[in-house]
Please model this.
Amino acid sequence: MTGAQSAYDLKRVLVLEDETHIRRIIVRLLREIGFDTIYEASDGIDGMKELLRVRPDLILCDIHMEPMGGMKFLETVRNLNTRDVANLPVIFLTADAEVDTVLKAKELRVDGYIAKPVSLAHLKIKIDTVLAEHKARRES
Amino acid sequence: MKRTWVSLAAFLLILAVGSGISFWVYQKQHGELVAGGSEQLAVARSAFTRELNRLFEPGPAVYEAMVDARLTARSESEARELFFAIATGPVLRTRQINGIFLGFPDGRFLHVQDLVPSSKSGIAAGLTRRIIDDPVSLPQGRWFQPGSGNGRWDEKQIEAEPYDPRSRPWYKAAVTSSGPVWTKPYIFASSGSLGVTYAHRIYRDDGTLWGVLGVDLSLASLSLTLLDAANTLTRFEDMVFATDLAGRMLAHPDLVRARPSERADVEAFLERYRAEDSVERILIEAVRQTDAVQVVDVGDGEYLATKGDLDPNLAMPISIYLAQDMDTILADAHETLLRNVALLFLAIVAFGSVSFYVVKLGVEVAARVRAEAQLVEARDAAEAATRAKSAFLATMSHEIRTPMNGVMSMAELLAVSKLDAEQSSMARVIRESASALLTIINDILDFSKIEAGKLDVERVPFSLMESVDAAAEIVAPRAEEKRLSLVVDMQTDLADRRLGDPTRLKQILLNLVGNAVKFTEFGEVRIRVRALATRGAGWLRFEVSDSGIGISEEQRSLLFQPFVQADQSTARKFGGTGLGLSICRRLAELMGGRIGVESTPGEGSTFWFELPLSVVESMPPVPPYGLSAARVILVGMEPEQTEIAARYLQAGGVSNIAIVSDSGPEPAPGELVISGPLAAAEEAERLRKPGGVLVFCGGREQLASLAPGTKAKAALLVAEPLTRPKLWRAVAVALGLETAGATEAETRPDLSFAPPSAETARAADALVLVAEDNQTNQTVIRKMLARMGFAAELVPDGRAALEALERGGYGLLLTDINMPEMDGLALARALRERETGRRLPVIALTADAMAETEAECLDAGMDACLTKPIDSRALGAMLAQYLPQALDLRRSAAAESRAPAEAAAKWDREIFDPSSMEEAFGSLDGEARAFVLSAQAVWGPRIEEIARALESGDHHAARNAAHSLKGAALSVGALRLGRIAGDLQAALDEKDEAMASIMVEILTPTLTEFEETVREIFHQEGHRK
Model:
């Protein structure tokens, strides 16, 4: 619909969220933004498999999930041997932002936060920012 | 009850105090009166004493004169002459003196008296002298009376007894006394009247007795004197009498008043006063011993009495008694006193009562004030509670409306997207439910606004016709669903430009028409608008009649009450909050009008309302083109509908109108044939002039179900309700003044567009910037704008909007009011501040329709306000007005309709990249598909093989199998499956078992994904072919 859309539809997004309906909404919003290929997982373990399977360009990840939460997932991702995969941009979806969480996530080089409930505009802006930064990092 | 006792007790207390004070005053007054009476009596006593002293004065006076005369007389004869001179002088003329005489020790006697007539004496009445100068030879003496000559006395021959003064009591008493003596009262021999004699001896120079002087004083004149004195003392009206020192009655005024016969015997007369029970006697006994004034009880009354003694040197030794009846003393005063006491009593009672009442009132007023204060408090609290409740409701309603708006808009968009029958039915249910819910919420919001006093009525110029038509258009689809005919019947000569609140007018109409549609099963719903000249200029009567179930009289009285529906059973059947009519009533009243209903159960109802909508321009609506040249044939409509259509056409200047009826002959053809659903298409076409225009009108469904061939013949399809603009446009089309195309899609033409690309819009300065933080609203607005053909960009707050605006290319800003970071008002102000060139139109999106909010928006530099939930028509109208440059950029949605197929064909090329197959087979034809399907059939077993090998620890076998899978997959185009197989191989090479097991695990879903994707693609491709 817009010029930017062509950039989105070539990218894969992985969404980790245990609440099914919230995941649906996020997927729906991502489609609104223009993403066509979206993969879903309901926890860190599932997410890890999907990550390895689909090699997404961007990961949106809830923090509180069972059995593996977002923080553990991020840690696992960052410790992967494959450098491209380990450095994938990860955005945390969070309803709260405790200092500990923020510090730990920062340590694990999280790429951004999006506050729940998620609004389309916020999501889009955050994704644009993260992707642009990631691209810049990779190119440098 | 308690209060009554208190009142009674207070009254009795007042009565007692009043009586007490009155009695005290009475006693005091009584005492004062008695004292006054006593004083008066004492005064009277001294007056009487003075008077009586004067009465007896002649005695001593004559004596002194005689003493002097003897001293000056050189001889006895000269002394005799002097005596006569004194005694016959003026002294004798005083009435109390009866006679003056002089007796000598040798028996001689000189006597002067004023004789009363007496037959016995044989002498004429009048002044008489008696001289006894030779007691021996002439003891009876000689008598003289005044003669005819001056100073001459003539001797008279009178038969008289001999008289020896020395034998008389007065002479004897005087001779033995050193001072003057007063005899006891006795009857005078000369006159026969009661009297006393004053006697005093006179001595020679040598001390020997010369003679005794006597003065007879009549006691009758004493009584007379007493009466005189009593009469003179005007305030003294009661009893006065005189006694001697022993208390014997001497004089009484009654004696004077008595008849002459009684008076004759004075002794006998006076005897009555000596009786034991006589008042006089009692009084005398009571006060004889004292000089004080006393109250004497005489048996049948009380007297105030006193006694006074005369000066014994001057007067006869008598006592004078004065007595006054207490009744008399008190009589006048008593009357006054009683009156005063009565008045006093009344005054005290009145004052007491008033005081008590005042106190009681004060207490009650205080209680009342307290109660009122409590009431006011309670009322304030209640009002505050009501306001809080209303505010809460408003907030809640708003909170509910936002998501509801999302649900509705999405359901609407969903309904028009590609759905199968079941899905679209579900979408419709969602939309209708949401719509019903939204109506209820809007009702509650409105009602709470009214309750909170926040509902304002505007007074702006508006078009009456447009408002009524618009309301009808909104309800038309619902009416049509129920196969009801919706008729707009407006008086055509009504002034169109009015002053009022079009939104609220429409709201009432929508509510009433909506109800009418809801409660009517067959027939029609009619909106009638007429001038109401009886109420005055500008007054209009709106009627909404239906042929529905009607409302009974008792139901009618409840109708306009909040939360009440006419019939609980209908409430169950039709739903609704029951607030609608209540809101209508309040709105009508707010606009200065009234609302009501007339109904016959079973036949239908007519809801009406009357409003004063003052006329801005007296012109009725007229078409923008001259239509007089047209000849219009009306056919196939209900007679009433035909009549209204004809009237509307006439109002537009069309005079040549022919109506086809069953009975009449077929009219000559015309330029325009307007055909209702009742006429056959052939008949309609026959009536059309060559080159003329055929227009079909009726319900949308009827129009939609017209045979394609018939539809093609129509230049225009006009959906009900028939309104003046629609009819006039039809005529204009027939006359070639207007093209039919512009109105081709009566149903929401504005939603049949696709937006240009953002770049195109930006290049034309036609991009819409939307600042809205709520995600649902974002989606709604985005979709809405897209369907109307406008490209938009969304930002979450004011700050982001300002940044975006820097980039330029925007033609309009739609902004929410409440946003984080920077709200809509701040955004508008900031924008206006930094704006240099073209002014960017800014439209606010507000959640509440409060007038003050709108004013705030306009103050902040905005151009207009839209209320959420956003009405797409209103938004469309705003965009057309403020963003005209974007209209040409809109693309027809029909041109875009091919897109969905392509979109559906999109899939992740990593799952399946058909390029290698297309390369190998030329295209993804049957052969290619068969190849792909046969290839994938062996991958499942291959994956199982890998898993088993790994489980048994045979890493080598697993590695080989993975390698084989990788090659097969990549060659078919299953890039992801191939890559994962490759990763597995690499993990096994690196002895990373954990990674390897994960990889094995994810091979199966990846294969499934491939199979599904391929099936989908092949299925769609098959359809397309």
